[in-house]
C-alpha cells in the first residue's frame, strides 16, 4: 500500500485507463453537432433537417468505431483527443452543410459556370475515410518508435511531397495542390506528419551537438557556425516553398515546427531568436518581389481598400462577419457569412463560426484546439522515449501553428494564407491528415501512460540482505 | 420558427459547447497523474473510500478492534512523525495498519536514503495495541534510541527510531 489517508507520503499514482471517460465524452461530442444541425435546420427552413437521423447515426457510428479501436489497440490513450476531434469534425460538417444551403453561394457558382455540388456529403465521406485512416494507423502502428527507423526515408518523402505541387498548375494563386484527373490533394497536409517524424529522429541524434557546443554572448548561447547548417537548410526550404509555391502558410508551418522542435530538443532560447529573425527576414524579403505574396500583404494591411478596389473582398467580408457576430452571434443559419463567397467553407470557415456563434463560440472553438494541443504537449511530457517526446511536440506544434496561421489570417492578424482549419474546414487532405495525426498522438500517449511493467524481483538485493553478518 | 425558440436554441447551443469545454478541462484535472501529494497536518476525513477500503483489507488487526480494544488507554501514540531526514515533517496516522519503511516504492514511507534497504523495517501494533518496530534484515540496521534492533521491540512514546539519516518517532 503506497498511501494512507492522513499521510503526507508522496506516492506514485498509476494512470487509470480512462476509456469510460472517453466514451462519455464521445457521446457528448456526438450530441452537440446533432443539436447544432437541428438548430441550423430550424433557422434556415423552419423544420428539422431531413437527414438529421442519418447524420447523427453516421457521426455516432464513426465515433463508436474509433472508440472501440482505441479501447482495443490503445487502452491507456488520452481520453480527450478522440472526443475533441470528433466534436470539431462534427461541427465542421454542420457548418459546411449550413453553407451548402446558402442561395448566394449557389448563385455565385452558377454565375461563374460551376456545378454547385453540396460539400457536406463529400465531407462526411472524407470524415469516414479519415476515421478509417485513424483506425488503420492505430492497428498497423504497433509502436511509434518504429517510425524512428524511417528518419531519412521520411525526409525524402517529405521533400517529394513538398516539391510535387510545383509541377502542377497553380490553383487560386498558390501551388499547393497535386491534381490527378478530377481528384486533387494537398500534399503539404501529409508532409507535416512525415516531416515531424524526420525532425524528431534527426534532432534526437543531433541534439547534444546542437545544445552543448556553443559560445555565450550577451546572455544568449550562440551555436557554432557549422551547427547552423540544419536550420539554414530548413529555412532555405521554406523560403523556396514561399517563392515557388507562393504559400506563406506551409512555409511558416514547417519553419515554425522546426524551430519549436529545435528549442525543445536543445533548451536553447537562442534558436527561437534566430528562428524569428530568419523567418521575418525571409518573409519580408520574399514579399518585396513576389507579386502574389505582395497582394496578400496589401489585402492584410488594408482589407477595405482591397474590397473597394475589387482585388479581394474575402478578408473584409470575414472581418465584417466577425463584427456582426458580436458576443453571442446571430445563431446558426442566421448569419450572412456566405457573402465571403469563395472558400467560405474551407479557409474561411472560422468566419462563419465568428458570425453565427459570436465571440463566445469562437473562444470555445479556439479552446478546443488549445485542448488538443495541450493534450499533445502533455503526451510529450509523459512520453518516456526522446523520439516520442519530440514527435508529439512536433505534431502538437504543427497543429497549433496551423490553427494560428489560419485563424490569424481570417481575423486579419497576419497575412492570409491558404490553409485549412484542422477538422473544421472542408477538404479531404486536411481531414485525412489530421485524423492520422491524432491517431499517432493517441498511440504515443498510450505508450506514455501505460503503467510500467512490474520490475522483476531483484534477487540480488534479497541475497545480499540474507548474507549480511 | 419563432424568434424566441431560435434565441433559446442559440444560447443553449453556446452553453452546451462551453459545457463540453468545461467538462474536458475537468477530465484533464482529474487525469493528472504522476505523484500525489497528500495534505500535511490536518486530518482529511474525506479521503477516498477506495483507499479506506484498501486499508481495511490490509490492516493487520482491523481498525475497529483498535478503537475498542487496548488502544483506548491513555498515552497511546496516534501518529508517526518523521523528525529528521529528507522527509522531515511527514506524518502518518496510526490506525492499526502496518507501516513499512524502505526504499521500495510500495512502502508506506518511501525512504530516499542511501543507507536504507529496500525493505528496511516495519512498525505494527501487537495484540494489545502496543506498537512494535521490527528490522526486516536491513543492511545498515535500525536503531531505537542508541541500540541496534535485533528483535521486534516495543516503541516507547517519543523514542527516536533511526534508519540511515531518517529519524522517526511516535507521538500522541
UniProtKB/TrEMBL annotation, chain A:
It is found in: Membrane. It is a multi-pass membrane protein. Residues 449-469 are annotated as: Disordered. The chain crosses the membrane at residues 23-40, 52-70, 79-99, 124-141, 150-168, 188-205, 226-244, 250-266, 271-289, 348-369, 390-417, 423-442. Pfam families: FTSW_RODA_SPOVE. Keywords: Cell shape, Membrane, Transmembrane, Transmembrane helix. It comes from the Bacteria. Signal peptide: none annotated. InterPro entries: FtsW/RodA. This is FtsW/RodA/SpoVE family cell cycle protein. The lineage of its organism: Bacteria, Bacillati, Actinomycetota, Actinomycetes, Kitasatosporales.
From TrEMBL, chain B:
SMART domains: FHA. Residues 99-149 form the FHA domain. Gene3D superfamilies: 2.60.200.20. InterPro entries: Cell_Proc_Reg/RNA_Proc (IPR050923), FHA_dom (IPR000253), SMAD_FHA_dom_sf (IPR008984). Keywords: Phosphoprotein. Residues 39-59 have a biased composition (Low complexity). The keyword DNA damage does not apply. The keyword Transferase does not apply. Residues 38-77 are annotated as: Disordered. This is FHA domain-containing protein. It comes from Streptomyces coffeae.
